[in-house]
## 1
Amino acid sequence: MAALGWLTPRRRSATARSVLAGEASAEAARKTTQDVSGAEPDFPVRGDDRAAAFFDLDNTVMQGAALFHFGRGLYKRKFFETRDLARFAWQQTWFRLAGIEDPEHMQEARESALSIVQGHRVSELQSIGEEIYDEYMAERIWPGTRALAQAHLDAGQKVWLVTAAPVEIATVIARRLGLTGALGTVAESVDGVYTGRLVGEPLHGPAKAEAVRALAAAEGLDLSRCAAYSDSHNDIPMLSLVGHPYAINPDAKLRKHARRLDWRLRDYRTGRKAAKVGIPAAAGVGAVAGGTAAAIALHRRRR
């Protein structure tokens, strides 16, 4: 049997080099495991019916402001005059460049927007909204955002627009994009006619977060598994509410906030190739809405 001794492993003490080799191997294995476990998981999670996605509208889903494009359509239909359209366009440009919101403009936006729809039938505005979408909005949908929303839908999740724009406009856009629905500012109506008053306040800032919270409760969603997308620091309350916040083409304040909290950040404005989860731009729903309606209000005051 001694001749077979070479088959039996010999007991040998570890040398310094073997110890080093073993430690290096263990460290490499540990690092590999960490790299795999720390990799970004597939998102959205397929089949997670307690998750949903919430998208800001202006400059997140669509380039520009919904109310601006809606105003162009109303001008075409003789709702107001050329001089008001020029001011209207200037306000839109100013807000997009400045990236800030003025409380006075927001108040003016609220009052003027209501004055525009007062006395009109809800069905009339809905019909006009369908036409204006085809005329001005369809070609301004960000392809990257549309693909991202579709990824949530393909995963079996609901996708909602959340915007300060009138819910009628938002609903048209959501339906055309095949999304689940829309949360927007609600104007009071009686017997199908706008009264000129709001139900509550414009869906802006903290109000967006409250709307998302209420919808999540009604739908049985787990907000920690939901995602939200926006460009504006005004939407930080909504973004903070979900487990997967995305800063999309963020303004300076949101960019700083997102980096501090290690939120995912994407910027389509640079033309960079989108990462695994790609998304688009935005400038502040309330700000643009303010510029839009404030300009139109001038015409109403002159009448």
## 2
Amino acid sequence: MVYDVNALLNHINKIRREIGHEEVNIDIKEVLYDNDANEMWIITNDRPDKSAIIGKGGWVVGRLREELEIGSIHVESHSDFLQKEYRMNLSLNKLNSFVNENKENLDYGTFIALNNLIDILKIKLDNLYSFNFYKYFKDLEEGPYGYFEAEKPAAIVALSGGTDSSFSLILAKKLGFNPIAITVDPGTIILPNQFRHNIDKLVEELDVPHEYIEVDYSELVQESFAGRFHPCGRCSKIIEETLYKYALENDVPIVIFGDMLATGSQCVTEQVCNLDESEDEIDEIGKNEPTDVDNEANNNKVIRLNLPASLSVSKSENKSLTVHYNLNKFKGFGCPLLYEVHKKFPHMKRYSIQRILRETRSGVLEPGEALDLIWSFYKTD
């Protein structure tokens, strides 16, 4: 179905008049409609045009959807997509060069899985406005061809039960990484039972092997409650080191994280794990830094892949796939320790908010989503 842009603009301004909004001149770059899904994408030139179509509280686009009898309308700004397109091209270049430079060292399953990721990245770039992960994989499963899966696990996925890690596991499975899901278990102070429900449900539905690895967080908890540091950075480091060690011990070449910020050239990196009797130290290989990778006793490499970041996935794209797996939904960050630290030391909220703002600047979070997250910190006071 083809929609006349001028007729659509007149309809939008009619709705604005009826609900007490002023008429405005709006620039629409493109209108796309999927008849099978009954979905429309309205692409504006910039964010102010997007805001005018959405209206205060979403009233304008809500009325438009009802009156046109369309299942869902997505209003996006072309300026946002220019940034997303740029980042995806950076990811594509990095993944291509990484695979080409390492193809002699990659086993066949890992090579195929990484090329599957490159393939879906190209397809998303070709369908910049309307790509839908759920629809894409559904069509793939119903068609005659699909992605080959690695014979042995090519990746482990850090699974916390939240939407980002759940999305990463679903994607890793669909792209043929034959993943193992690993959950670092520090106890309910950080991993509450409702997250365990999501973890157990998802791995069963995807038929993915899964392990809980118990880790002693007592020192981190004590130091956090003493106000010595914000817990998130230390927690992430423990999780990373635990997963890298597991990957090395089980000969799994890739560790996948749901980090949404490591976009472009940082989406895939090599980590060197210097293992000795006293401790494990993990360092990223710098491009121009010499490393003694031939000394197998002290140096072991593992590939870190930030899967959602490699595809410049937004939170809304993330949720549009994970919603089909009937997982529990959580408001805020969902970590009991973080909220207790916020209550005891309100100034620590500053560092949590900084993280939210970084994700908003990167386009991962919409401003409204960011506001909800920040507000959730203050509703617990």
## 3
Amino acid sequence: MATNAIDQTRRMLSLVTYLRERPGARVGDVARAFGITEDELIADLDILPMCGTSFRGGDLLDIDTDGDRIWWHNPDDVAEPLRLAADEATALLVAARAVATLPGLREGDRQALLRATAKLEAAAGEAAGASSRLSVTFESEGGVFADVDRAIAERRRLWLRYYSPARDELTEREVDPIRLFAVGHTYMEAWCRLSEARRTFRLDRVAEIKLLDAPADPPPVELRDLSEGLVQPAAEDPEVSIEVGPGGRWVAEYYPHDSAEELPDGGLRITLRTPDPASLRRLALRLGRDGRIVAPQALADSSRQAAEQALVAYGE
């Protein structure tokens, strides 16, 4: 079952208390107690050491695991009474007020956040006055995130106008959201009713979004393991060959590939697979003089034509 961001945050807060009372807890036991898989638990444990009681990087949770047991090495240090500096209190209050205005936030969560904000204001004293003179406005992606998160929580279908950079066009579609995740950017995995297949949508490419009254009913799907990155080519995907000069060697670091053969000029001939070869035209344009697509020929020709059209547009 997909987990939304707020539910995951609740779970991780409970996990901190649970681990404090059970030093050396077994991974399998903790996962069963929280009703999640061991892989999901390990993912939470990878995040917790980046959390703590100070925005300045100190007092972080020193939690690790050997794959069998979980160890928290500084529970007493982190458990000391929290004392917020003025800048920390200001940042917390500004962030809390901003999140409370997000569209799509469940009313119960909004009220809980407002109550916590009021308590923090009382504790912050004079620092609260400075925070009242500051505000944060979320860009469109924040609203999209809230709508998707709400749709997942309420199991509702979504309508999207979505920009596809590979085709350079906006499409309208209805989708049944499955989960939100972040790999560099924030994405929604959903069952697309237009293509009748599972698709991944980048939130900053959603031009418009609406919650529908229709219930979301995605078919049962196995969630992909994203530990190796978002793009994980399959053996049956089309093969593409790209030649890059020394200035384009970074492509081999950022794109999963089958091979990277050294070239005499210090460049590489990279062979990779992708379910959508046309999406690599943007890579070819980005490389400019530092690289080119050499196969398949149709993709090489269309990439060259796209570059020529771009040059004409600049000339005009």
## 4
Amino acid sequence: MHTRTFVAAAVGLGLGLGLVTLSACGSSDDDGSAAQSKTVTLVSHDSWAVSKNVLADFEKSSGYQVKVLKDGDAGQAVNKAILTKDNPQGDVFFGVDNTLLSRALDNGLFQSYEAKGADQVLPAYRADQKKHRVTPVDTGDICVNYDKAYFSAHKLTPPASFDDLLKPAYKNLLVTENAATSSPGLGFLLGTAAEYGDEGWADYWKKLKANGVKVVDGWEQAYNEEFSGSAGGKKAGADRPLVVSYASSPPAEVIYGDPKPTTAPTGVSTGTCFRQVEYAGLLSNAANPEGGKALLDFLLTKEFQQDMPLNMFVYPVREGAAVPAEFTKYGPQAKDPETLDPAKIADNRDDWVKSWTSLVLK
């Protein structure tokens, strides 16, 4: 699951975002290869979104028409792309993050291309520098969010750390996503692995399970159906005031609130954050590699990077790209998020998820 963006959340609340989300199952052109060469297809998880005018600017300047094939949550989309790599569905894949990057690279999903503007990417977000098979596009922090009204009414201080979530005061309050099926769920698991190490993370989850953590399949269900602090959760009568979501979730509650609140109704437990980075790459055997390269260049332009926050509720990775004031006020990036070396994730991810499933779901 990767629907961490509030594109999905807002649509679930019946809000129109004025975004373009084209979808296609391959080229529908009947004019042969000449027409096909003018179309570039982006394969993505379900949360891709871009402003109409920004996409139109790219299409006009490049001469390419962009088609978007949305292929489910991040894990599902990556797995399908790997299975179809010899005859790919498109030219560029967007949405593989640092939790799944090694799987994509080890399976030869991408070919090398250093996008224009790659030298403007902040060093912390660069990856695969020797081969340039992926281009960093955005970043965000997976964190526990809390319902301010609940904690105020119960005169209870919100949890500030992973350790706090084990305290009796927070029993039966947290809902998280399945680490085997959900990107934020996996990120939260990796955050605990980074915090407690190889020997301690499993014991932490045993204690968290004993303290009543609830696990659901994906972010949409957790945030909009189970979390009492979200607009969707309020409508659904949700009863969990803690949820694994994103540091950018509170500004979304303000921006898309109806009526728009003056302060964010939700907050972030900043000691529970794990930093996520998303990448795009030119697919191996892409039918239109030149169009794919142009599209990757576009993803690093300042125009696109500054358009992303209010469309996909993520932070830009390009140096000097501005973010909306609401992000700075209501959803600043965590100052000291948990991180893990990609090689460490690659070596342990599958075993960690398997062990987590046995510990938590059985």
